[in-house]
Amino acid sequence: MGVFDDALAVLAADPNLSVAATYRASGAGAPVHLRVLRSSPDRIAGAFDTALLQATDVLTVSVATLPAIEPGDTVTIGPDLLTVDSAERDAAGVAWRMLCRR
């Protein structure tokens, strides 16, 4: 583990910054219980000259915890079921940034 892995582990363990979640790969597989860093920015998208406010969720999780993430996988946080639209690794390669829709 490197310095960035250690820092992410500290952030994920902090109950003030992270939330409990359950990850499930689409198709099959056992659920994985983990902690994620969650932010919920709203995006403004345009369609037919109309601005649409779209709720989104961005989750950060360690690559060591989830080695592979695919679009269509789901994450449950409390009553919210989130579907992964895309996932990208950070510059250091230690964390996933998952863009999800509700």
Ordered list of secondary-structure elements with their pairings:
Elements lengths: L2 H11 L4 E7 L7 E8 L2 E6 L2 E13 L11 E4 L2 E10 L5 E7 L1
Antiparallel strand pairs: 1-2, 1-5, 2-4, 3-4, 4-7, 5-6, 6-7
Overview of the molecule:
It is globular, with a radius of gyration of 14 Å. Helix content is 11%, strand content 54%. The chain has a single domain, classed as Thrombin, subunit H. The mean pLDDT is 85. With 102 residues, the protein is mainly beta. A six-stranded antiparallel barrel has the order 1-2-4-7-6-5.
Brief characterization of the structure:
The chain has 102 residues and is mainly β.
Question: In which range does the helix fraction lie?
Answer: 10-25%
Largest sheet: 6 strands, antiparallel, barrel
- Mean pLDDT across every amino acid position: 85
SSE order, as H and E? Answer: HEEEEEEE
The assigned CATH architecture is Beta Barrel
The count of helical stretches stands at 1
Number of domains: 1
Please identify the structural class as seen in this structure. Answer: mainly beta
First and last CA, distance: 33 Å
Shape annotation? globular
Beta fraction: over 45%
Order the strands across the largest sheet as they lie in space. Answer: 1-2-4-7-6-5
> Would you give the CATH topology?
Thrombin, subunit H
Q: Over all CA atoms, what is the radius of gyration? A: 14 Å
- Please mark out the parts with pLDDT under 50 across 5 or more consecutive residues, or reply none: none
